[in-house]
């Protein structure tokens, strides 16, 4: 029972947040804004931002792991941190 609740709870919370947000935003205005968005510019800004953030996050994790546990290579941690960003 607990396992099922842990799997369902994030979905319910996400649906609840969407409900609250979309209840306050007119649906047609939302669709119009999404239709007018410049996705090339958005991706041109967000992809480098994400790459830099993942690199920085991996560096901080590597320093913390070295500090508390012992030697670890940056390139060993990078795929692990990148995978967690893909999942989320």
Structural class: mainly alpha
State which percent range the strand residues make up. under 5%
Helix content: over 70%
Cα distance spanning the termini = 24 Å
Number of continuous helical runs: 4
SSE run:
HHHH
Overall number of structural domains: 2
- Tell me about the largest β-sheet: none
Radius of gyration: 19 Å
**How many strand elements?**
0
Tell me the overall shape.
flat
Mean pLDDT over the full residue set: 92
Low-confidence stretches: none
Key traits:
88 residues, mainly alpha, 2 domains, 4 helices
Task: Please provide a brief summary of the model.
This protein has 88 residues and is mostly helical.
SSE inventory with pairings:
Layout lengths: L1 H23 L2 H10 L2 H30 L5 H14 L1
Explain what you see.
The protein has helices spanning 2-24, 27-36, 39-68, 74-87. It is an all-alpha fold and 88 residues long. The chain has two domains: 1-37; 38-88. α3 crosses α4. It starts with a helix and ends with a helix.
